């Protein structure tokens, strides 16, 4: 079988000779000192219907600030989404309760309520709430009528709702009214912070490896939920601890499980149609604020669904071109191993890695390469994941590997200088 991956020690840590700096991103120029500090890309409608009840979503900020605002999204709705009240507050980290004295009411264009048309979203007005890096903020919204909320399916934490018909509980400090739980994120899809000291936002963009599948697995029979242990979370904490003050950036996760870069892969699931990388790029990356870089991981599902390396590379170049046109740098993670790949799929995976490495930063199409392949591959069978990291499906990795991946990234490479 073909074994993929560089053997040079120099590439065991994420790489790169950067290309010349691009102009400041348009999103950053328009947003001033606003930076997206958390995101959760919507992928469809929940199977749950909300009726005259409140939800409380726990959002984990990568960086803090002196004020914040949220995005309410109705991208997949077929009817207008009515929100009649909302608050933000610091979460206690225990159930749905919030920290006393931190509750702030949300407004939209100066009004407490908003109707969000199908296929659109709405950002709240600025709220004065001081936050720190790695703090959890509870976003509470009251839906007066009946609606199926837009959702991100895998929150990797517990979120909360009051029972149907229970009314407005967005200002409740105690979490007693929030008796229902969900492991999805509903309605809210991004949180911005206002922070004049930040230099940008890095968006991690891709499929389940980015989304965080495996990041609650701490070994056989061991599960840790809500601890923010994805590799992107590890990276965010490292930036806070290691990056110079002038190079501090936020990290926003825009992964969606099961999605692909290319369109038209013959074995693609109908459930991910319309969620391809280029299709959702505007709403899930370019519409965020202060974005200076994107860490891009796509290709593994494309290969499994029958796409060729040529199709995948075409899709990569399309996305990279749009990002560079917006002044946003691109850091590519070449496709990692799967034991289920056929010989031909591994040949295509070699093509993808060759594009990244042997052409020196994608021949100028990207600004750096991050080599997760070297971090997680089996030392005996390089076309498979190290057994110590594998959650059991041959695709996704556990918390130990998430830490190793996050530690392998060169924080200095992400600098906006």
Count of helix runs: 10
Full CATH superfamily name of the largest domain: SGNH hydrolase
Question: What characteristic shape results from the CA principal axes?
Answer: globular
Question: Gyration radius, to the nearest Å?
Answer: 21 Å
What number of domains? 2
- Give unreliable regions as ranges: 1-30
Order of helices and strands: HEEEEEEEEEEEEEEEEHHEHEHHEHHEHH
Report the sheet with the most strands, covering strand number, pairing sense and barrel closure.
6 strands, antiparallel
Report helical residue fraction.
10-25%
Essential attributes:
417 residues; Rossmann fold; six-stranded antiparallel β-sheet; 10 helices; single chain; globular; alpha+beta; 2 domains; disordered N terminus
Describe the structure in your own words.
The protein is an alpha+beta fold. It folds into two domains: 239 residues, SGNH hydrolase (Rossmann fold); 148 residues. Helices cover 21% and strands 24% of the residues. It contains ten helices and 20 strands. The chain has a six-stranded antiparallel beta sheet, with no helix packed on it. A five-stranded parallel beta sheet has the order 17-16-18-19-20, with helices on both faces. Strands 1-15-4-9 form a four-stranded antiparallel beta sheet, with no helix packed on it. α6 runs parallel beside α7. The protein is globular. It starts with 25 loop residues before the first helix and ends in a 9-residue tail after the last helix.
């Amino acid at each position: 079988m073909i074994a993929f991956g560089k053997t040079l020690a120099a590439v065991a840590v994420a790489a790169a000779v950067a290309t010349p700096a691009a102009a400041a991103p348009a999103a950053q120029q328009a947003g001033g000192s606003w930076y997206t500090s958390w995101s959760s890309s919507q992928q469809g409608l929940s199977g749950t219907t909300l009726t005259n009840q409140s939800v409380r979503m726990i959002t984990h900020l990568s960086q803090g600030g002196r004020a914040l605002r949220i995005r309410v999204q109705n991208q997949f709705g077929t009817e207008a989404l009515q929100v009649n009240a909302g608050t933000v507050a610091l979460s206690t980290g225990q159930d749905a309760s919030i920290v006393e004295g931190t509750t702030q009411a949300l407004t939209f264009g100066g009004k407490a309520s908003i109707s969000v048309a199908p296929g659109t979203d709405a950002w709240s007005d600025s709220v004065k709430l001081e936050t720190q890096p790695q703090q959890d903020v509870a976003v509470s919204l009251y839906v007066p009528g009946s609606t199926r909320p837009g959702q991100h399916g895998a929150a990797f934490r517990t979120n909360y709702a009051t029972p149907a018909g229970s009314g407005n509980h967005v200002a409740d400090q105690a979490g007693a009214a929030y008796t229902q739980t969900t492991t999805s994120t509903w309605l809210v899809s991004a949180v911005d912070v206002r922070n004049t000291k930040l230099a940008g936002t890095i968006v991690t963009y891709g499929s389940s490896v980015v989304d965080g599948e495996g990041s609650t697995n701490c070994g056989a029979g061991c599960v840790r939920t809500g601890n923010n242990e994805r590799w992107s979370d590890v990276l965010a904490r490292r930036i806070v601890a290691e990056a110079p003050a002038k190079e501090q950036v936020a990290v926003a996760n825009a992964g969606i499980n099961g999605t692909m870069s290319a369109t038209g892969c013959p074995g693609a699931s109908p459930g991910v149609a319309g969620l391809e990388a280029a299709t959702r790029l505007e709403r899930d990356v370019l519409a965020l604020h202060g974005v200076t870089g994107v860490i891009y991981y796509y290709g593994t599902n494309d290969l499994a669904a029958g796409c060729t390396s040529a199709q995948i590379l075409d899709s990569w170049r399309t996305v990279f071109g749009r990002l560079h046109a917006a002044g946003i740098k691109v850091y590519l993670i070449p496709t990692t191993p799967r034991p289920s790949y056929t010989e031909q799929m591994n040949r295509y995976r070699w093509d993808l890695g060759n594009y990244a490495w042997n052409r020196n930063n994608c021949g100028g199409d990207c600004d750096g390469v991050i080599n997760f392949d070297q971090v997680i591959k089996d030392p005996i069978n390089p076309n498979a994941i190290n057994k110590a990291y594998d959650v059991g499906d041959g695709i996704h990795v556990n918390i130990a590997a998430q830490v190793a991946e996050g530690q392998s990234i060169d924080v200095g490479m992400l600098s906006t200088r």
